[in-house]
Amino acid sequence: MSFHGADLVTEGRVRQPSNAPCTHCGAKPTADVDFLDKRGGLTTTFEGPFCRDCGLAVFRSATASTLSRGWWGLTSFFATPFVAGANILSRRRVARLSSPQMPTEGRTSMPVGRSLWLRWEIIGALLPIVVAAAVVGVIRVNSDRERQQVASYIGKCVQFSIPAGALVGKATIVDCTGPHDGRIASVFAGSCPPADPSIIVPEARTTEITYCVDPGE
Length: 217
Ligand SMILES: [Zn+2]
What we know:
The chain has two domains: 5-133, no CATH class; 154-214, no CATH class. The chain has three helices and seven strands. The protein has helices spanning 52-69, 74-95, 127-153, and strands at 34-39, 42-47, 157-161, 170-174, 182-188, 198-201, 209-214. The protein has a five-stranded antiparallel sheet, with helices on one face. A hairpin with a 2-residue loop joins β1 (34-39) and β2. It starts with 33 loop residues before the first strand and ends with a strand. Bound molecules: zinc ion. Zinc ion is lined by residues 22, 24-25, 27, 51, 53-54, 100, 109.
């Protein structure tokens, strides 16, 4: 994008239209903006200046394409909202222009086409919300499952097998009617009271869960 002298006059919040004719149909007035069409990692730039109708037409097709095909790839996923946002800012400038005036008879501006809101690609704008909801859902299901698993060990009996001279051994859940070294009394996030032996159960996926074993039973 280049700046024309008139383009920099923003006094009174009125940005002067560019003097150059529309790149696509030759009409005036125009705004010197670009539109981006992002398909995965590939971005195509449609350069201005654009008259009002050509600008709206290119905005609609490029943004629809970006919203439906722009998301593929990790970087693209995060870049797509910015590309769509840049297009929306450029659209505001062309939408403010008066209707295109042709210098010669017989040429016409691009047909503006259907509003972006009426195109199926607009559902692509919901993709980040859907992905975020799915991630939160998976985390919640997993943590519920872990919590249930943790709770299910309380009251069960364990038998230790610690090799001679070692500090770390194995704890096996055993039937309380048979021989056992103790019963799981409680669960701690940190360490157990000094009198109680503790076991760290590896089934807990994200955190280590410490079970405190009451050796009295
Ligand atoms: Zn045009």
